[in-house]
Design goal:
The structure holds 4 protein chains of 4 kinds.
Chain B: H1 3-33, H2 41-59, H3 62-86, H4 91-114, E1 120-121, H5 132-135, H6 140-145, H7 150-168, H8 170-180, H9 182-187, H10 192-218, E2 220-221, H11 229-239, H12 244-267, H13 272-276, H14 278-295
Chain C: H1 10-31, H2 35-48, H3 50-75, H4 83-100, H5 106-135, H6 139-159, H7 193-210, H8 212-222, H9 224-229, H10 236-261, H11 272-282, H12 290-311, H13 315-329, H14 335-351
Helix pairs in contact in C: 1-2, 1-13, 2-3, 2-12, 3-7, 3-10, 3-11, 3-12, 4-5, 4-6, 4-10, 4-11, 5-6, 5-10, 7-8, 11-12, 12-13
Chain D: E1 4-13, E2 18-28, E3 33-37, H1 44-51, E4 59-64, E5 67-69, H2 74-79, E6 82-85, H3 97-102, H4 116-129, H5 145-158, E7 163-167, H6 175-190, E8 194-199, H7 202-208, E9 211-216, E10 219-225, H8 231-239, E11 259-268, E12 278-286, E13 289-294, H9 301-308, E14 316-321, E15 324-325, E16 339-342, H10 357-362, H11 366-369, H12 377-391, H13 406-417, E17 425-429, H14 437-452, E18 456-461, H15 464-470, E19 473-478, E20 481-487, H16 494-501
Parallel strand pairs in D: 3-8, 3-9, 6-7, 7-8, 13-18, 13-19, 16-17, 17-18
Antiparallel strand pairs in D: 1-2, 1-4, 4-5, 9-10, 11-12, 11-14, 14-15, 19-20
The chains are: A alpha/beta, B mainly alpha, C mainly alpha, D alpha/beta.
Chain lengths: 334, 296, 362, 520
């Protein structure tokens, strides 16, 4: 009896992985989920996958904003968890993975928003953020040149950024500026730096100072401090365009456009790909409007009601051009 | 736009930026006079910012918000102060504790009350701009002095009140005496520690309002939004040589440097880091000149 | 002002540690999902897990060295709140020198880099000392301000002229791999740097306790008037201890670079300067006590990382635990401790009823 | 009027492991001046601190009007009319004299604000009522020592204290100030106050006290009517088995001697200290000579000390030491002994309270205790023990200075400064402060020994007895100027010096030894 019992169990143990193969997913967030739409949607993508694949498990880890600690934390995360796959998102993470990959050769990593080819257990997918910046810049240029009540005659648009960082300096800001200049070459871009990602009061002061100097459209990329920019723009009846996620509800009528990254969809897709064992390991992809992972959120009522049809038409035309490949941006190498 | 307009705008925004500094410095003044290094100003401000905003959001009343911020921050100050005094612990370390505690407790409560540990933006009433209607906001003087929201003026009144309290009141005299010579206060039959505690609670009170003056006009609570202002306030007190008037002036200099640097970012092609350093450099220079002048 | 602790040192420490421990357990009990798991992860795991243990000891190295720097300043009654900037500047100097010398032997690179780090940190400390000596600027404030400026300037250097063009981190290029300090417990970041730190600590103790320089420094710290009367140039002791303090912070930064990070990452040192102050105060400025103080501090840090990683405790809960521990750690008087001494006193009195030795009174 | 009794008071200090009081008792009779006498460390102050509520007794009872009372704080004692003026005054800097006097019960206006006018009026009234002449508007930090004491006494009087305890009230006062203090005390006694004076100065006690208690080693030896006991018997009682005071050592003026220190036409005029400057001081101190300089407070003594301690620079004139510019203190290593200095501020300048006795002694001769820059602890230990023995400091080398009584600190400093080999030049400021009779005799003897071995000694003191006892020549300062230089001898009396100090003309007959001729 006992022997039969044991045989049954051992058979079960051997067979189980073959039958169910539930995925153990670790999501490493180099920051904090709440307040960072990009990480929130990454987590949401993983959650959606887990919800649809019963038996799979998910561990989220927030590593905080100090980039110097990520290496140590990623290492402990990987060594403690024994995950089937670690999903993460940040341009600088591939460097870290490159450093620890030899230590954990069987550990698979998928990194969104990053670019690094040639590491056998890593697959990266980069958003074409020049494209994203360009779309936002083009929209900002159209708004600033329009006869909307908050727009002025000066050809000035602005950005309030938390800090300078490579993706910002090489992709986003140049893309934004190109977009502006595509509307009118006389546009100038005013970039102001906050010095951190949370001093909303100062962000508000910065935005006000910018507005008094003639800026009428601002793209804030300064983390939680962007609340200050929203406040300043709203108070003075000027306009904002936003990045990465649907932010219209924060200030309808002030936030006139959002150019989103479909991080949730991308994360979900990449996990499915992993489950189907079709992940192209060692490769690096670039995705953008064409692939459907960068999107101007132009279905939102706030967008439709606030912007005149002329602007909306020109934006649709732009998106169409990018989708069709008529207008393309060199895949950034990062 | 003439340079006069620009200067006016910079001045006006300096006066607005001065508000939290002035209030925090008014609070820190009491602990300084009582002879204590209070590095917890930062944490106390954050507490005030959170509870002030939460109360304003719940009640829809800014006045209640300001009060709640002041009270909550006073309560934290009381806890920090009594730990320091009763346990005879090192004030620097307990201050550090308060500064670590404030963001933690606000995040925990924020998760409970608002469902997020991040930015909480809700519709709360705008602070009124009480003098704008009377004096207009078109003239330069009007923009500099009369265009601000009520918390700016409240901060002036409170700062004056703090000066009066520290110089003219019985409590203020006792606190100063404690700082000047605690054993004499004990010899006179009072408990120096209770005046130190009173000073800490007062610093909490003012810092709480300082925090509320960050979150209420913004209509949002942002984690870590005090952003080093507590330290700057402390510097201002030193710069002002622990005198109310001079401390207020120091706060103004600091705010002016900051709003100038905000303006300068758009104007000159200097790396932003250097411009961000302007307030610190300005303070350092002012401190060097100020004390050397005093020494002669 | 920061007052030096007086009174019974060692005795109360045990009680304060106990109080801190109990209150943090209570917090874990209330706020974490599983008290037992969290407890094990917080208090046991940092010691039981090789990786955490290695990182914990690695973290002690800069804490000890920078804490020693704080002790030098505090013992001479100078207050160095500029540790952050000094560490940062020292690290930048060390990295730049190491990169420039990449063809040289490791020993030569170490010598040059650590000297550069000490010089950079020391220069900043000395600036505050100079301002104090010449212009009577309070060094507590000036060091803080200088540090705030320097952090911004170094940030600029990292993201501007010295940014590694191939990296997405805001970081300089890496130091030559051969120049990294030998690792002890891979994959943790523990390196031989800890021995350098211990050596510095013992040397610091020796200098403060046994040398003329240390004696004069402490005398200036204890009573300026008396020191002046004893013919000591107290101006010098406003400058030199700040210089040493800054230099040690610079070295602490270099230790972190050569021991763990391998390059200068923006914001990598955030908080170490403050932690060093805490460590020095816990050690009550006694260099040898820096070892247990740093160990305790690093243990807390490792424990919080472990519990965050393992039990999903949030940053906030860990933060509150740290806050509670800080609240107690320097307490010199606890209610039950007081009761204990008064008990001892009555005991003593009944036994030595007629003893007549008096050095006090009057 | 209240009667007060202290019964069987015990007090143990665990921090230093000493019994300060053992079965101490005391009876105060209302309306009398009562002196508590004893040598340094006899427990006088501790007993009085217990009476005033500053310390709590371990056992024993305090009876007021026959009722046992318990004081948890000075405020409790004050409620029963008991108040104490401490040896170190408790005036609060930053507040005016009036605020200091009324501190704790200021008149106030609505909302708890200070009634500034009311404070000034009340304080001035109070001062006038008891016959004090003090400007109550002055800030505490600008008050003289005597004025600070007045503030302290007025503070108690304002609180209606009828039992006033004064701890060593005369130790910081000049003769003139002592005189006026005593007349104030007599006046207070006449108005029905009970006064307790802690002192070890037999002469003064005999002058002012009605009754006295003698304390020794934490016990009360007995209570006496002041008129019943002779000074001699009293000092025997205080000193216990100590030998009776020696006859005054004959002082001789050495004829052929070399000037060690020369002060030439020195003036110090700083704007801030209008009245307290030095004006055209010329003075030289020769080897084997003690020059005593005496003055009333605020007449230049302090400035002279600061000048020679290197804290003030002369605006005019110069100071020469062995023919060279005056060096910084302790910076004359090429000379055996160098310069010794006993500062008047023994806690601030003379010692470091957070450090041990040994460290305080080592501090001043680092060249010899730190050969090659490293501490020679054996040598330091030996030297410390020796310095402690010279004047009988009651402490171990490792005791912290702050655990020592004031007298013992002074002895430690004197022992350090007057040790072998003697310094070339000694600057001694108020060397007798806080010392009991026995220590005083020993100190004087040592000073004269040092002189006889060849030191040049400049003695700055406000105690005329001390000046007369030790000096070869006496310099009197008045308003920063030299009012006279006289050779000490039988013709020089206290009254004569006192007159000079108050600016009542130079001494008659005595030749004013104006600037000494230099040896060239």
């Amino acid at each position: 009896m006992l022997r039969r019992f044991m045989a049954f169990f051992s058979a079960l143990f051997i067979a189980l992985p073959l039958i169910a193969a539930p995925l153990k997913i670790g999501v490493f967030i180099p920051g904090q989920r709440e307040g960072s739409p990009i990480y929130d949607s990454l987590a949401a993508g993983a959650e959606q996958f887990v919800a649809e694949n019963p038996g799979s498990s998910l561990r989220l880890f927030e590593a905080g904003f100090n980039q110097a600690e990520w290496q140590e934390k990623l290492t402990s995360f990987v060594s403690s968890g024994r995950f089937d796959v670690v999903l993460t998102s940040n341009p600088s993470i591939p460097d870290l993975i490159e450093a620890i990959a030899p230590l954990f050769p069987t550990q698979k990593f998928i990194c969104l928003d990053g670019f690094k080819a040639g590491i056998p257990n890593l697959h990266t997918v980069l958003y074409n953020q020049t494209e994203q910046g360009y779309i936002a810049g083009y929209l900002a240029g159209l708004i600033s040149s329009s006869d909307l009540p908050g727009a002025n005659a000066q050809k000035k648009a602005g950005m309030v950024i938390g800090q300078h960082y490579p993706v910002m300096d090489t992709l986003i800001a140049p893309g934004f500026e190109q977009g502006l200049k595509a509307v009118d070459p006389s546009f100038s871009l005013d970039i102001r730096v906050l010095g951190n990602w949370y001093d909303a009061t100062k962000a508000s002061e910065l935005a006000k100072s910018m507005i008094t100097s003639g800026v009428d459209v601002i793209l804030p990329i300064c983390g939680s401090a962007s609340q200050g920019v929203v406040k300043a723009a709203k108070d003075s009846n000027h306009y904002l365009v936003f990045f990465d996620s649907d932010e219209y509800s924060r200030a309808p009528g002030t936030i006139l456009g959002c150019v989103a990254l479909k991080q949730k969809e991308l994360g979900y897709a990449k996990l499915n790909e992993f489950a189907l064992k079709t992940t192209p390991w060692g490769s690096a992809q670039v995705v953008g409007v064409k692939e459907g992972y960068i999107e101007l959120l132009d279905k939102h009522p706030s967008y439709i009601q606030s912007l005149p049809a002329s602007i909306r038409d020109r934006m649709s035309e732009l998106i169409a051009r990018i989708s069709s490949g008529t207008l393309s941006f060199p895949a950034p190498k990062l | 736009m003439t340079w006069l307009d620009t200067a006016g705008d910079i001045l006006a925004s300096a006066l607005e930026a001065m508000t939290p500094l002035l209030l925090a410095a008014a609070g820190g003044l009491f602990t300084e006079l009582a002879g204590m290094l209070n590095i917890a100003l930062e944490g106390l401000m954050l507490t005030g910012a959170f509870f002030g905003f939460a109360a304003a959001a719940a009640s829809g009343s800014l006045i209640l918000g300001v009060l709640a911020g002041a009270l909550a921050s006073s309560a934290v100050a009381w806890a920090y102060g009594s730990a320091t005094l009763r346990l005879k612990a090192n004030a620097f370390i307990t201050g550090l504790a308060a500064n670590i505690f404030a963001p933690s407790i606000t995040a925990i409560l924020s998760a409970v009350w608002f469902g997020t540990r991040s930015v909480v933006a809700l519709d709360i009433p705008e602070p009124a701009r009480p003098l704008q209607a009377f004096f207009g906001s078109t003239s330069i003087l009007g923009r500099i002095f009369f265009s601000h929201h009520s918390l700016v003026y409240l901060s002036w009144v409170l700062a004056a009140g703090a000066a009066l309290l520290s110089n003219r009141s019985i409590l203020g005299t006792r606190i100063r005496a404690t700082g000047a010579r605690a054993e004499a206060v004990a010899a006179a039959g009072f408990k120096p520690d209770s005046y130190k505690l009173a000073a800490i609670i007062l610093s909490g009170f003012f810092c709480g309002i300082a925090g509320a003056s960050l979150s209420l006009p913004l209509g949002a609570y942002v984690p870590a939004m005090s952003s080093g202002r507590g330290w700057i306030a402390l510097v201002a007190i030193y710069l002002g040589n622990r005198r109310p008037g001079r401390t207020a002036l120091a706060c103004f200099i600091f705010a002016l440097a900051e709003s100038f640097s905000n303006f300068a970012q758009g104007q000159f092609g200097i790396p932003s880091e250097f411009i961000l350093a302007i307030p610190f450099a300005a303070t350092l220079i002012a401190l060097s000149l100020g004390t050397s002048a005093k020494r002669v | 002002m920061i007052k030096k602790e007086s009174g019974d040192k060692g005795k109360s420490l045990i009680f304060t540690l106990l109080a801190a421990l109990i209150s943090s357990c209570l917090l874990l009990l209330f706020f974490s999902e599983s008290f037992f798991d969290s407890f094990v992860l917080f208090f046991i795991n940092p010691l039981a897990n090789r990786y955490y243990l290695g990182n914990m000891i690695a973290f002690m190295a800069p804490l000890i060295v920078a804490g020693l720097g704080i002790s030098f300043a505090f013992e001479s009654h100078n207050f160095n709140l500029g540790g952050e900037g000094q560490i940062y500047a020292g690290s930048l100097a060390a990295v730049l020198v190491a990169i420039a010398m990449k063809e040289q032997s490791a020993a030569l690179i170490w010598l040059a880099s650590f000297t550069a780090a000490a010089a950079a940190g020391g220069a900043l400390g000395a600036l505050s000392g100079f301002l104090k000596r010449r212009l009577a600027v309070d060094e507590l404030i000036s060091s803080f301000l200088v540090s705030s400026i320097v952090v911004l300037v170094v940030d600029f250097c990292i993201t501007g002229p010295f940014q590694d063009p191939l990296s997405n981190f805001q970081a300089t290029r890496a130091i030559p791999p051969a120049a990294a300090l030998p690792k002890i417990l891979p994959p943790s970041s523990l390196s031989t740097g800890i021995f350098a730190a211990l050596l510095a600590m013992v040397l610091g103790k020796f200098i403060l306790a046994r040398t003329r320089f240390g004696f004069e420094l402490r005398l200036c710290g204890a009573n300026k008037d008396f020191a002046r009367y004893a013919g000591i140039d107290e101006g010098l002791y406003a400058l030199v201890p700040m210089l040493i303090s800054g230099a040690l912070h610079g070295v602490a930064g270099a230790l972190m670079i050569f021991g763990s990070y391998g390059r200068l990452l923006r914001g990598f040192s955030s908080g170490v300067g403050w932690s060093a102050i805490a460590v020095a105060l816990i050690a009550r400025n006694n260099p040898l006590a820096l070892l247990p103080a740093a160990a305790f501090y690093a243990y807390l840090d490792a424990g919080s990382k472990s519990v965050m990683m393992g039990a999903g405790a949030s940053q906030e809960i860990v933060g509150s635990i740290q806050a509670v521990i800080f609240l107690f750690i320097t307490a010199t008087r606890l209610p039950f401790f007081k009761a204990q001494t008064s008990f001892l006193r009555t005991m003593l009195k009944s036994k030595t009823g007629t003893k007549k030795s008096r050095w006090r009174s009057q | 009027m209240k009667s007060v009794e202290l019964e069987d008071i015990d007090k143990y200090f665990p921090s230093s492991g000493t019994w300060a009081l053992i079965q101490a008792r005391l009876v105060l009779i209302p309306g009398q001046i009562h002196a508590v006498v004893g040598e340094n460390g006899a427990g006088k102050t501790t007993l009085m601190k217990i009476l005033a509520g500053h310390e709590r007794p371990d056992s024993g009872r305090i009876l007021v009007q026959g009722n046992a009372v318990k004081f948890n704080s000075p405020a409790d004692a004050a409620r029963l009319g008991i108040g104490m003026v401490h040896q170190h005054f408790m005036t609060i800097p930053g507040l005016s004299a009036a605020q200091n006097i009324l501190f704790g019960s200021e008149p106030r206006t609505a909302f708890g604000f200070l009634d500034k006018k009311g404070i000034l009026c009340t304080a001035a009234d109070c001062a006038a009522r008891y016959g004090f002449s003090i400007d109550v508007t002055k800030k505490a930090e600008s008050l003289s020592v005597g004025e600070q004491q007045q503030v302290e006494i007025l503070r108690l009087l304002y609180k209606n204290c009828d039992i006033l305890i004064l701890d060593e009230p005369t130790s910081v006062l000049t003769d003139q100030e002592i005189h006026s203090l005593f007349s104030v005390l007599r006046q207070l006694k006449a108005s029905g106050k009970t006064i307790v004076i802690i002192s070890h100065k037999v002469g003064e006690i005999k002058k002012i006290a009605d009754r006295l208690s003698v304390m020794k080693d934490g016990r009360c030896l007995g209570e006496f009517r002041a008129s019943d006991i002779s000074s001699h018997a009293l000092s025997d009682l205080i000193m216990g088995d100590y030998e009776s005071p020696r006859k005054k050592i004959k002082t001789t003026f050495p004829r052929q001697s070399y000037p060690i220190l020369e002060i030439k036409n020195v003036s110090i005029h700083r704007q801030k200290r209008k009245s307290n400057t030095l004006r055209d001081i010329t003075l030289s101190v020769n080897e084997k000579e003690i020059i005593g300089v005496c003055a009333l407070a605020n007449n230049g003594l302090k400035e002279l000390e600061d000048l020679l301690a290197g804290r003030l620079k002369p605006d005019k004139g110069s100071v020469a030491y062995l023919g060279n510019p005056y060096p910084k203190l302790r910076k004359a290593p090429w000379l055996p002994g160098g310069i010794a200095y006993v500062p008047s501020d023994r806690i601030g300048r003379g010692s470091c309270t957070d450090r041990s006795v040994a460290e305080n002694i080592v501090a001043l001769d680092r060249d010899s205790f730190f050969p090659h820059g490293l501490l020679d602890s054996a040598k330091a230990q030996a030297r410390t023990l020796k310095a402690i023995q010279v004047l009988g400091v009651k402490a171990r080398p490792e005791s912290k200075i702050r655990q020592l009584s004031g007298g013992n600190i002074q002895k430690m400093i004197l022992g350090r400064e007057l040790s072998e080999p003697p310094a070339n030049f000694c600057l001694l400021c108020e060397p007798g402060w806080g010392l009991d009779y026995a220590s005083l005799r020993r100190t004087y003897k040592r000073i004269l020994e040092v002189r006889n071995k060849g030191s040049a000694i400049l003695l700055l003191s406000s105690d005329i007895d001390e000046i007369l006892e030790l000096s070869d020549r006496i310099v009197v300062l008045h308003e920063g100027m030299i009012a006279g230089i006289v050779t000490n001898g039988p013709g020089i009396t206290k009254a004569k010096l006192g007159a000079m100090m108050m600016g009542l003309g130079r001494s008659d007959g005595e030749p004013c030894a104006q600037p000494e001729k230099l040896n060239d």
